[in-house]
């Protein structure tokens, strides 16, 4: 029996309530998300407990904690509801101008800095009623989130394993950003000048590890004075210190427009890299998701000043 057929033996409304309780660990939050009363959610949970012969959730100070049986069921329920929604979406017309659909996009803070402004402009222009939730990047969780349907898409410069589909939507390279007072003359610097700089380093968990690999291969060591996990903090740090940082060229250009910093080409070769758009590979892609992927592709192109 398919998961869709299996879930259809239960009230689909109850399954959706179950999924929300599991995700929020709260009857109140579930009621708010569904715009119903908390007693209605409690009644639905009581029905589920009776039909499934399990407590499903145990209340404790941390919220509604799922039982082992509930954890097993959630895997099936989440996947099944996503399959049902895909089938319904595939036969339902989607009009961006009138839609009230919610989309969930996974981005790093670098992606938020570079792509989000153009994406919001695109959405407000084409689909003012559509809501977008940005999910913070966790590289090791993205394949799971895509498979479960917890996110609609992700934009990242790393390659993810699994069944997710991928399109290359941008090509990038690394450059060096430093305060104006340290810039010197010319568009590039010598390896000696580079070695004398003191650096901010972005944690490799963000997926940007190529720089360190290239430097190790050349036997070049950086003087590292600061390590951070977020690109967003860099402009203020650079503008008020004597530190430099290696970042992708697009975010470097953004920093240069907004802060008193200068962009320099590196005095050594580092391979360029691709920015990828990921989504889940399913037999049926909804018209809504197809539209969203197209908007993402055009927004990335627009953020780079390229024709779409």
TrEMBL record:
UniProt keyword annotation of Zinc present: no
Domain of life of the native organism: Bacteria
Gene3D superfamilies in UniProt: Periplasmic binding protein-like II, Winged helix-like DNA-binding domain superfamily/Winged helix DNA-binding domain
InterPro entries: LysR-type_TF, LysR_HTH_N, LysR_subst-bd, WH-like_DNA-bd_sf, WH_DNA-bd_sf
Family: Belongs to the LysR transcriptional regulatory family.
Sequence ranges assigned to domain HTH lysR-type in this UniProt record: 10-67
UniProt keyword list: DNA-binding, Transcription, Transcription regulation
Keyword hit for Transcription: yes
Protein name: LysR family transcriptional regulator
CDD domains according to UniProt: PBP2_DntR_NahR_LinR_like
């Amino acid at each position: 029996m398919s998961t869709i057929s299996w879930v259809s033996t239960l009230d689909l409304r109850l399954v959706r309530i179950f999924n929300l309780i599991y995700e929020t660990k709260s009857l109140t939050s579930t009621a708010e998300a569904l715009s119903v009363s908390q007693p209605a959610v409690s009644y639905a949970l009581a029905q589920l407990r009776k039909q499934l012969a399990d407590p499903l959730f145990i209340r404790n100070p941390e919220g509604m904690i799922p039982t082992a049986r509930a954890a097993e069921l959630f895997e099936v329920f989440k996947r099944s509801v996503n399959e049902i929604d895909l089938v319904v979406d595939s036969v339902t017309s989607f009009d961006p101008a009138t839609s009230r659909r919610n989309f969930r996009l996974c981005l790093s803070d670098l992606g938020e800095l570079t792509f989000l402004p153009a994406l919001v402009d695109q959405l407000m222009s084409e689909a003012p009623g559509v809501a977008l939730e940005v999910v913070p990047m966790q590289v090791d969780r993205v394949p799971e989130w895509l498979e479960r349907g917890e996110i609609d898409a992700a934009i990242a410069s790393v390659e993810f394993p699994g069944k997710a589909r991928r399109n290359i939507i941008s090509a990038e390279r690394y450059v060096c950003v430093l305060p104006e007072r340290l810039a010197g003359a010319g568009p590039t610097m010598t390896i000696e000048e580079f070695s004398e700089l003191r650096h901010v380093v972005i944690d490799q968990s963000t997926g940007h590890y190529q720089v360190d690999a290239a430097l190790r291969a050349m036997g070049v060591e950086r003087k590292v004075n600061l390590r951070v996990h977020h690109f967003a903090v860099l402009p203020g740090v650079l503008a008020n210190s004597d530190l430099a940082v290696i970042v992708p060229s697009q975010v470097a250009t953004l920093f240069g427009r907004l802060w008193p910093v200068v962009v320099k080409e590196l005095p050594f070769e580092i391979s360029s890299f691709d920015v990828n758009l990921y989504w889940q590979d399913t037999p049926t892609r909804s018209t809504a998701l197809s539209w969203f992927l197209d908007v993402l592709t055009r927004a990335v192109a627009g953020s780079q000043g390229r024709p779409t």
